Amino acid sequence: MNRLSLWVIKRIRDGFRRLPPEMRAQAQFLIGQAESSEGRIGSAMKAFRRALVLEPQNLGSRIALANLMSAQGDHSAAVWEHETVPRADPHNVQALAMKGQIEAAQGRIAASIMSFEACMEIDPDHANAHGSLAHLYRVEHRATDAVRVLRSWTARNPADERGWRDLGQSLWEESEEQRNSSV
Predict the structure, then answer these.
(1) Residue 14 exposed, middle or buried by CB count within 10 Å (0-12, 13-18, 19+)
(2) Which residue stretches of the chain are H helix?
(3) Taking CA 82 as the corner, what is the angle to CA 146 and CA 48, rounded to the nearest 5 degrees?
């Protein structure tokens, strides 16, 4: 553990009882961030959970906890956490994008597509949503939809080589789908 993280964690813990109650959830969030950055996932999750006990609407802690749960393979708990965030803050694109990723990992492709579409409605420039949505459309043999998403992305981000490469692949898949449907 690096010295700065140790110092931050120690100072916050030492002063925790002196903090006003309204600042304690934020202190637990900071402890969780520091623990997570040091790879101490169990301690980080405990800190984020303590923050949520103190302040159930603490969206930063909820998102961080869900991300750690997902990284640990606990996708169903992570989805529950990420579904809570959009109810509290329907415009939180970070939560919607992570929810879409978790749903895709669970094989819930239709739900994942809906999450990424909602993310793009809120933030049309969200790179992860464009790429993930286009990929999911291609998995579902909906190359025309993938082309639409990637054309929108490359128009906004003409220097993105990956976007252009994915668009080329999607255009090829679209032509294959059209050729196969006419046979």
Answers:
(1) exposed
(2) 3-15, 21-37, 41-54, 59-71, 75-88, 93-105, 109-122, 127-139, 143-156, 161-182
(3) 140
Q: Which of 109, 114, 53 is nearest to 86 (CA)?
A: 114
Contact 90, 115 (CB under 8 A): no
- Taking each helix axis as running N to C, give the angle between helix 127-139 and helix 143-156, from 0 to 180 degrees, rounded to the nearest 10: 160
| pTM of structure | 0.62
Question: Amino acid identity of 55?
Answer: E
CA–CA distance from 131 to each of 77, 107, 162 (Å)? 25, 17, 9
Q: What would the two tokens of residue 115 be?
A: 């999450």
Encoding tokens for residue 16?
């925790």
Per-residue pLDDT reduced to its tens digit, 109-163: 999 999 899 999 999 888 888 899 999 999 999 999 999 999 999 998 899 899 8
Find out whether 61 and 29 touch, Cβ atoms under 8 Å: yes
Tell me the CA distances in angstroms from 123 to 104, 130, 136, 149, one per residue in order. 20, 10, 18, 13
Amino acid at 88: A
Q: What is the dihedral of CA 9, 89, 133, 75, to 10 degrees?
A: 50
